[in-house]
Amino acid sequence: MNACIEVNQVSKKFGSKQVLEDISFTVETGEVFGLLGHNGAGKSTAIDCMLGLKKMENGEVKLLGENPVKTRKSLFEQIGVQLQASSFQTNIKVYEICEEIAALYKETTDYNELLTEFKLIDLKRQAVEKLSGGEKQKLAVVLALIPKPKVLFLDELTTGLDVVARRQVWQTLKALKKNKMTILLTSHYMDEVEELCDRICILKGGKIVVMGRIDEIIKMSPYESLEEAYLWHLGEEVTK
Amino acid sequence: MALRRGGNKMKRFFTILKIEGKLTLRGVESILFGVCMPVGIMILICLIAGNKPAYEGADYTFLQGSFGSLITVGICATSFMGLPITLADYRDKKILKHFFVTPISPLMLLLIQVVLSILLSMVSSIAIVLVAVFAFGYYMQGSIVFFCMAYLLVMISMLSLGMVIASICRSVKLANVVSSVVYFPMLFLSGATIPYEIFPKPLQNVSNVLPLTQGIKLLKGFSLGMPVNGLMTSIVIMFAVAVIGVTISVVTFRWE
């Protein structure tokens, strides 16, 4: 196994507020890694630091063995990203956003194949605004896959989706997982995390509370479900 | 190899330009305010007073006097409405931020939006020229070459002000408000639609502060064949506005 994402003692402040403190973890190739925590725990900031979007005070990040700031141009040919709460140009159609994203990379997958695989091909000529929440998120995954990435970053991909749409997105991610795609995701849904992730890391106030395989995390707590163990690790009251 | 890569880059640029251009056209406002309205205003003015002398004893017609100002109406629409609102919207939607996690610089997207604004302004101006020449028998007394150079200068300087709005306004809502606050006074008080000469003196003083007023003086001067010496102040002001605008927007621009 070799490391695909290496985060080494990363610290980040906004003004005087410490948002990340001494964060270190490694994601191996082919692994699905979940970054969990309440809103404001530092998940999105951690992703921004990993992608080189924000400068950090301390620490070092390597993606596929390279520094994301220094080798941005070549590195991001191989990385697919879905940013939290991002959206699309007004009036743009599905095939147009695919074409625009494809134009950014040297080597791409045919987006028609991806649209077919994700059952979006019939909506190709529709305005993106008219898609349902689930369809939009599936489109976000399609766009992240266009550059044939080796790593995927998905920030709260399923937040706001209904149960059916959420499960549709899971199916697509599971298929990717089968094909040994490395994925780093954040989520608020423990059922989703159990379904998809190999290992998780729980953040609280910018610090790592606990990290490990899901069964390990549950075993460390007096509870039997991940949701209860999650709350217990965060020091919250577990109510039945 | 270097050539091929350059070719690829151009191809990417044109693919994105094509798609973003389609989006611009699909948003009806740009055509309405950028092309239809300027042409409409010109037709209206021509029907009212087009071929009369600009004022009693003038040796040029009202249309000849107003041509240089009417041609800026389209520049106003793209610079103060189209460009800043689109960019603020793209920032809100994290489209600019997303370009940072691709191999292409988000600067390319900014450049594409500026190019689209220029193209739209030019389409608007060409429409005005065609209508003026073929429907109302307009001809330019001054040098067409000088006029075109002045036109480019005014356009660049107004676009740089549009970039300042895009940089300073942190949200689409604010960009909308600021755009309107800038656009409408520029449109009505700089002489773009209502001739500066018929303003009362106090209003002319207000008008003189607006950067577009200087741009219009310049265009009007060149279209009427006035000597360059008399227009030096306006030329210097236009250059200054362009340099200051570009500097402020480069320093203050936020990607997210």
Automatic annotation (TrEMBL), chain A:
Tagged with keyword Zinc: no
Keyword tags: ATP-binding, Nucleotide-binding, Transport
Presence of keyword Nucleotide-binding: yes
Residues covered by the ABC transporter domain: 5-230
Pfam family, one: ABC_tran
CDD domains registered for this protein in UniProt: ABC_DR_subfamily_A
InterPro entries named in the record: AAA+_ATPase, ABC_transporter-like_ATP-bd, ABC_transporter-like_CS, ABC_transporter_ATP-binding, P-loop_NTPase
GO MF, one example: ATP hydrolysis activity
UniProt record similarity statement: Belongs to the ABC transporter superfamily.
Protein name per UniProt: ABC transporter ATP-binding protein
